[in-house]
Amino acid sequence: MDYLPLFLDVKNQRCLVVGGGDVALRKIRLLHSAGARLRVVAPEIRKEVYAFLSGSHHELKERAFHPDDLGGVALVIASTDNHAVNQQVAERAKQQGVFVNVIDAPEAGNAIVPAIIDRSPVMVAVSTSGTTPVLARLLREQLESVLPNGLGQLAALAGEYRGLVKARFDSIHDRRHFWEETLTSDVAEQVYAAQLEQARSTLEQRLAGAELSSGELYLINVAHNDPDELTFKALRLMQKAETVFYTDDVSKAIMALCRRDADLIAVKNAAEHEALIIEHINNGRRVLFISADSASLITISSNLSTLLANKNVPVHTIPTPRL
Ligand SMILES: C[C@@]1(CC(=O)O)c2cc3[nH]c(cc4nc(cc5[nH]c(cc(n2)[C@H]1CCC(=O)O)[C@@](C)(CC(=O)O)[C@@H]5CCC(=O)O)C(CC(=O)O)=C4CCC(=O)O)c(CCC(=O)O)c3CC(=O)O
Ligand SMILES: NC(=O)C1=CN([C@@H]2O[C@H](COP(=O)(O)OP(=O)(O)OC[C@H]3O[C@@H](n4cnc5c(N)ncnc54)[C@H](O)[C@@H]3O)[C@@H](O)[C@H]2O)C=CC1
């Protein structure tokens, strides 16, 4: 990882943009929409910038960059069309310990502006670490087309209820379960259909009536060991599972798609882990057993089915067994 992705609160923070051309305008709009106080320095500043930054808490200076411009700033964008000037701005900013984004030479600076999907409060940012900005844009466009418009409203609504949900469920595990179910339930559909009041009442009903979660078991065979060959269902379950038992023949690329906070347990001899698997399920956890070896999956599947008989535990097997 060459860059650390982070979301910064720049409200009321002084941010310096050196340059006042097309690219600078794009960055100025972005900083402005995040509530920054701007200082723009350039011999020629596009007129849109004046129209845009009319408030008194912004400073516009129609002259070349001077190192004193860095005084008191939280973040710098070097966005002139003069490579040497951009380098100088970057050097000075880094000397002063201020993060700087350089629009014509990312390696000269230490911050990158990503392609952004803004469904505030939900934000998605894509970067190619400066290698291929057009790819970042194309990915952003693809993601835009699959992310519902109402995503921000859903997050805002859920945010209002976090305190109540915390009070309702003692363990983080049950809270997580509640949110995973709720955020993929009718509540989400109602928010997306702009029926906010209805969504609110459905959420409240779920909160009032929700039972403590029961465990689940997912059995996935990844014979191909290639992430591109995974089905949507396999991926969804991999991202739901809180405990993952895996055999060492599963590729790293596939394991990387499991949820980040899952407990990963390496398995040599599946039979030795059956009791532990059952224990996790009985504790209400969603357990995944994943292997590239179909024989070991068939064995564990039939052993666990016997042990779980009459327990009403949902079991999902992928690929679906053919009769
Ligand atoms: C390193 C970075 C610096 C930074 O942080 O600004 C950078 C650098 C450079 N961009 C160049 C060119 C173009 N950039 C765009 C567009 C975007 N560029 C953005 C970010 C970044 N660009 C950062 C890396 C992001 C990452 O990690 O991937 C986006 C995502 C965000 C934004 O700027 O707001 C925004 C898309 C927003 C969106 O649509 O969502 C287009 C137009 C297009 O694609 O339509 C072109 C013209 C096509 C071309 O020439 O490639 C050049 C060559 C200049 C030249 O040749 O003269 C350099 C310099 C170099 O690479 O050396
Ligand atoms: N990061 C990105 O997304 C992209 C970066 N680029 C790069 O960005 C560069 C700038 O592109 P544009 O904004 O379109 O150029 P532009 O010509 O519209 O603007 C250049 C600006 O730099 C200012 N400037 C020049 N010398 C200065 C100095 N000493 N101090 C302060 N300001 C100074 C000018 O007054 C002008 O406002 C291009 O040369 C290209 O290398 C181009 C496209 C996309």
UniProtKB/TrEMBL annotation:
Gene3D superfamilies, per database record: Cobalt-precorrin-4 Transmethylase, Domain 1, NAD(P)-binding Rossmann-like Domain, Sirohaem synthase, dimerisation domain, Siroheme synthase, domain 2
E.C. numbers: 1.3.1.76
Gene Ontology molecular functions: ferrochelatase activity; methyltransferase activity; precorrin-2 dehydrogenase activity
Biological process annotations from GO: siroheme biosynthetic process
InterPro entries, sorted: 4pyrrol_Mease, 4pyrrol_Methylase_sf, 4pyrrole_Mease_sub1, Met8-like, NAD(P)-bd_dom_sf, Sirohaem_synt_dimer_dom_sf, Sirohaem_synthase_dimer_dom, Sirohaem_synthase_N
Pathway assignment: Porphyrin-containing compound metabolism; siroheme biosynthesis; sirohydrochlorin from precorrin-2: step 1/1
Domain Tetrapyrrole methylase: 217-319
Keywords of the record: Lyase, Multifunctional enzyme, NAD, Oxidoreductase, Porphyrin biosynthesis
Name assigned to this protein: precorrin-2 dehydrogenase
